[in-house]
Amino acid sequence: MAATVIDGKAVAAEVRARVADGVREFAEAHGGHVPGLATVLVGDDPASHVYVGNKRKLTEEVGMRSIHHGLPAETPEEELLALVAELNADDDVDGILVQLPLPDGIDQDAVIATIDPRKDVDALTAGSAGLLAQGRPGLVPCTPQGVMELLRHAGVEVQGADAVIVGRSILVGRPLASLLLNASATVTVCHSRTRDLPEVCRRADILVAAVGSPRLVEGDWIKPGAAVIDVGTNRTDDGLVGDVDFEAAREVAGAITPVPGGVGPMTIAMLLSNTLRAAGARVEQSPAPSS
Ligand code: NAP
């Protein structure tokens, strides 16, 4: 029987609707203060412009403020660091997103490290990663958080499941491994040096591909009935395709995400959710003085 196709667009719309409700409640409880998300885009990479444009549009759609800073590619690193420091100190900014990749010559790690941990809505700082690795509360990177939300929505049992993640990046594979482990899955993380990748994948009740290699995961790598989550986004002559051979995999899997329309829409939805959470945590830590 063909797999259930998990509709990431619909789940993302539900998450955004929940965030919009939360933003209204937040504003009512805090004298009309609306959470604000600052986006910083350096250079003129066309894909990054599209991503940031979508983030700004959806930020406003859920009722939050979008504060945008577009800087030329030749911006010196010190200037970018000074801008991040300014946004850290700005009380109207609850979340800071520096769009990656940054142009050559700018130390990405140094820029990320400058973001106030309370405003780290991309959750890429070492502090956020450390809290997640220790299973403590904190902000969680958007794409892996979106993967967990899709699994929940599809009714996939995570506790006790054998989960295999292909890819070990700081953005996806590593934080997802922590999330799945925190949810009591038995987690295996694969990478370019993994021996006999197909055989490892065949053990997975939950298989997540986050590689960046078109249709790497073949149908016969999949355990019958497994949940398959495809994070990959690869531009090819056939258009946008994932890391999984979708047509072959859907004949074997129990549930599967498509590309596009699977994990992609979840990433921005979780960014908005993180911004609302960050705003809530900030007012709890430093309640506004009553006038
Ligand atoms: P990345 O930083 O390039 O990491 C890729 C990982 O895949 C690395 O760990 C690499 O192993 C591993 N790998 C490469 N070739 C492999 C192979 N043949 N077999 C097994 N493992 C292999 O990529 P990323 O940032 O995690 O992104 C992965 C994909 O997800 C990309 O297509 C990206 O566009 C997509 N993505 C989508 C979203 C979304 O919102 N939908 C968000 C983020 C990323 P090594 O560590 O050994 O090099």
Describe the structure in your own words.
It is a single chain. The protein has 291 residues and is an alpha/beta fold. It is 41% helix and 16% strand. The protein is globular, with a radius of gyration of 19 Å. The protein starts with a strand and ends in a 6-residue tail after the last helix. The structure holds NADP nicotinamide-adenine-dinucleotide phosphate. The site of NADP nicotinamide-adenine-dinucleotide phosphate has 26 residues, from α10.
Annotate the secondary structure layout.
Blueprint: E1 4-5, H1 8-29, E2 36-42, H2 46-61, E3 65-71, H3 77-89, E4 95-98, H4 108-114, H5 126-133, H6 142-153, E5 162-166, H7 173-182, E6 186-190, H8 197-201, E7 206-209, E8 227-230, E9 234-236, E10 239-241, H9 246-249, E11 255-256, H10 264-285
Parallel strand pairs: 1-11, 2-3, 2-4, 5-6, 5-7, 7-8, 8-11
Antiparallel strand pairs: 9-10
Helix pairs in contact: 1-10, 2-10, 6-7, 6-10
The structure holds NADP nicotinamide-adenine-dinucleotide phosphate.
Distance linking N and C termini = 63 Å
- Bound ions, cofactors and other small molecules, one mention each: NADP nicotinamide-adenine-dinucleotide phosphate
Query: Over the alpha carbons, how many angstroms does the gyration radius reach?
Result: 19 Å
For the largest beta-sheet, the strand count, sense and barrel status come to: 6 strands, parallel
Query: Quick check: average pLDDT?
Result: 96
Low-confidence residue ranges:
none
Strand arrangement, major sheet:
1-11-8-7-5-6
Oligomer: single chain
Helix and strand element order: EHEHEHEHHHEHEHEEEEHEH
The structure class reads: alpha/beta
Helix content: 40-55%
